[in-house]
Design goal:
single chain, 467 residues, alpha+beta, eight-stranded antiparallel β-sheet, six-stranded mixed β-sheet, 11 helices, 26 strands
Length: 467
């Protein structure tokens, strides 16, 4: 039986876009401030999960809801379990959108909205691939479990809860990255740098507040500082010229206090160079001014050790592995108040050959244990790699090449996907080679033709893997 996968996928476009629109309209940011017993991660993620499972039930699939934090869509039977791993949660929308991030808009062949590329668009493509396989009556000799998480962008509570209570797939992939494949992922850890108390002393300026960042895995787009005291007369002119040269937007509201806002460019923390970190830029602007001792130390630390250094060289943590590449470091959450917390959270993606404990020690040594304490925030995830000669990797790469004519090759990224949750797990699509990566950025979108092509590639690949 010869199947024109692309042609079959194109027939599904109207219904797929309708279902994707339903999911995109749900603000599914993790929201534990409004958690309840029924909604452990907040109402949004649970509602998005329920909507996805409802779509599958409408189409006749058997589903399972695990405590409103994870779900499963099932197809086939057999001794082995092939797993698909998607997620319906999204990072916060953040500033800079030209449209409402939760009102999907189709323009110039692209669908815009938070979650279009990460990960509602790719997940719905994988779902329609399953539906296509079933509707064509293709042979399946394995169980297929499409597992849906609800906090992949944060602590992975949902997927861990699922694996505590449900069988672990033997192999599989996550539609949550890029083609041709991601068969290696760097380790991920966040390090909280807390400045130790510094005695107050008279100063011309006092830094009363400094803040930037909304999530550990997002380069901050906006940073704000509040200052008391009289700024130099030339500061406004010099700051405007500095902003023009730096390529950031500056808003200066003079008064007592004075407020300074810098707008840079947000990006996924896996590649900080894709963004302009508003937090480090603002600190760099202010560091030479005559601030109070605590404010001065904080600004100097950020400007000296964290600004424009995506590889951690200034922190003394830079490391490169031949297979996995360079370590990356992204300072993503800045918190400073005079009488409260004075910290920076640095998100690090590290290759094999180093580890989170080593990195923590290196940061503390560089900055000085007498000046800061450094701790690992949350759970560190070690590096993950599935060899290129694994049948899973070989099959996926061959399928991609058969559909696109582009030679497949191994890839290692700094991003973290559910692919790493099992030993023989990888990430596979749905971003096409050469396509702009807009995950975690304002005005996130996905080309509709790429979603449909992903359906064709996924359906073919899954069919080959479960025969």
């Amino acid at each position: 039986m010869t199947i024109n996968w692309q042609q079959e996928a194109e027939k599904l476009e109207p219904q797929l876009l309708s279902d994707l629109t339903t999911l995109l309209k749900i603000n599914s940011e993790r929201d534990t401030d409004h958690q309840t017993k029924a909604y452990p991660l907040g109402p949004g993620p649970a509602k998005a999960l329920e909507a996805f499972l409802t779509i599958a039930e409408r189409d006749g699939f058997k589903t399972l809801n695990v405590d409103n934090v994870a779900g499963r869509i099932e197809l086939g039977s057999g001794d082995e379990i092939f797993g698909l791993f998607g997620h319906v949660d999204v990072v916060p929308a953040g500033p800079g959108w030209q449209t409402d991030p939760f009102v999907p808009v189709i323009k110039d062949g692209k669908i815009y909205g938070r979650g279009t590329s990460d990960d509602k668009g790719p997940s719905i493509a994988a779902y329609y691939a399953l539906k296509l396989i079933r509707d064509l009556g293709l042979p399946i000799n394995k169980k297929i479990h499409f597992i849906i998480g609800t906090d992949e962008e944060s602590e992975w509570v949902g997927i861990h809860r699922y694996l505590e209570t449900q069988p672990t797939p033997d192999f599989g992939f996550s539609p949550d990255a890029e083609f041709p494949i991601i068969n290696g992922e760097k380790g991920i850890a966040s390090f909280k740098i807390d400045q130790k108390p510094i005695a107050a002393a008279p100063a011309e300026l006092t830094l009363t507040n400094f803040s930037a960042g909304i999530r550990p895995n997002m380069v901050p787009q906006v940073a704000t500082a509040t200052i008391t005291g009289d700024l130099p007369e030339t500061f406004a002119t010099q700051a405007t010229a500095w902003a023009d040269e730096a390529g950031v937007k500056l808003t200066l509201t003079l008064g007592n206090p004075t407020t300074i806002e810098v707008v840079g460019k947000g990006a996924h923390a896996q590649e900080p160079k894709d963004g302009k970190n508003a937090g480090t830029y603002l600190a760099n602007l202010l560091a030479d001014l005559p601030f109070d001792p605590a404010g001065k130390a904080y600004l100097l630390m950020v400007a000296k050790y964290l600004h424009n250094d995506s590889r951690g060289k200034l922190l003394g943590i830079n490391y490169t592995d031949k297979l996995m590449g360079e370590l990356t470091a992204s300072p993503d959450i800045f918190t400073f108040t005079q009488d409260g917390e004075q910290s920076v959270l640095v998100n690090v993606r590290y290759p094999q050959g180093t580890d989170a404990d080593t990195i923590r020690d290196q940061i503390e040594t560089t900055l000085g244990a007498d000046k800061v304490t450094v701790s690992i925030s949350g759970h560190a995830q070690g590096p993950h790699y599935v060899p290129g000669d694994d049948p899973l990797v070989k099959t996926l790469l061959q399928t991609f090449t058969d559909h696109t004519g582009i030679p497949g090759h191994e890839q290692v990224i700094g991003g973290g996907t559910y692919g790493r949750i099992i030993k023989r797990g990888v990430a596979f699509g749905a971003q096409m080679p050469g396509q702009e990566n807009v995950m975690h950025q304002a005005n996130e979108y996905m080309p509709i033709k790429d979603i449909i092509t992903a359906v064709a590639i996924y359906a073919d690949a899954i069919s080959r893997l479960v025969k």
